[in-house]
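User: Hey, my collaborator sent me this sequence without any context and asked if I could get a structure. I don't really work with proteins. Can you help?
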Amino acid sequence: MDVGGGERNGQAGERIASRLSRWRRGVIFALLAAAIVERVAWSVASSAWSAGGEAFLVAYAFSQGHGFASAYGLDHGATAHLLPISPGLAGTVYWLLGYTPLAELVLAAWSIGLALGSYLLLDRAFARLGVGVGPRLLALAFLCLAPTYIAQEAVDFRVWEGGLAAFLSALMLDQALAADREDAPRRHVHVVIATAPLLFFVNPLMGAAAFLSLALLWAGRVPLGVLARRMTMSVLLLAMFVVPWAIRNQRVLGEPVLLRSNAGLELALAHYPGVPVRGDRDDAFVARLHAIHPLQSREARATMVARGGELAYSRALGNEAMATIAANPGRAVAVMLAHVGDMITPGPWIFRIWGIQGLAPIQSALATMVGLLGIGGLIAGLGLGGRRWLFVAIPIIVPVLAVAPFQPVMRYTYLIYAPLAFCGACGLSLLVEHFRRQLRRRRSSGSATGDTSAAR
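Assistant: No problem. I've predicted the 3D structure and written it out in structure-token form, which is a compact way to encode the shape of the chain:
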């Protein structure tokens, strides 16, 4: 027996593995550096000094000592239009550094870091699924270099919650897959228990997906008492976020709003008589915004004040939207199906409203490609990769269905963009490898049959 030859072969294999590992790390470092340069260049070239909209107004009000207020204008008063974590973090930076270039630099680093961090977590999560380096690097390279959501990653998510929600969702996926082993270190269990409630309070749609992932992780796989104890711990942590927020809302708004106050407003933006369901819908949507959104219309804001504030106004709009849905349920279903399409294959009009006119068709084409390939890859992964791919499916399917009654905006379509990119590369690679194995088996079977015939 050539023991020395076996040792030499083993050492050669270790050297090759080491070189491949160093090569992969070098490629990832180069991709991250290119992504940072691209997003910083966008920030410098952009005409936007900072993020805008309700989240910025709330963050700025917080920095000025007014608390969570001013979602519909600087003199609006207390609000529950947004959950407090993301605007609170940005407001703290503005409070410490002022509304200055340094503050924007810190927040830009935070926003870009969340995006790239979520990509790295997804890379590790798909490695835990057994996907090879090649497809994962392909997905990572695309996400780092494609300008699909560059404005959101560089500017908007400085104050809006989309970047933090995507990062926590990627962390949840990675740690759930790590915990989905009998010999998993307890730290992975502790991380998912803590991440699910935090994600819920940042973005309830993704948080609901996280709690479903906890159920998938433990239901039927651990003793009932262990399942109950772990789920109770996560729910109690969620209560530590929700209860103080509800008490605050009772004090300043007169009602114990548990999460956000704008559900009726958002429903009314999507459901009204004559709402279009096909083609570019930007003109209709912008007109609807200016008709009823208090930040976009003085008349709408005056109506909100006359009706008694944001809670009463949103409730009244929600009742009107529900009446529209009840009067024409078929149309409501068509609207919701259009919204599902917007989540998976967002059209150019969505990017035009919140982005750059000239770049919108390219961004839409990239997002649509990712959506279609990603769904195909997810189906392949579920069919060929087994139960663990359900952890990937949950944070994609849940937000798509949960957003369906409302008009998706870019910070919602962004939530499933990176997971779908990895699904497209990794799931389809599983499919290709499956067909290759089938082809090899057929060739082997055919060769064996030929040898048997020749022997006869």
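In plain terms: The mean pLDDT is 91. You can pass these tokens on to your collaborator as they are.
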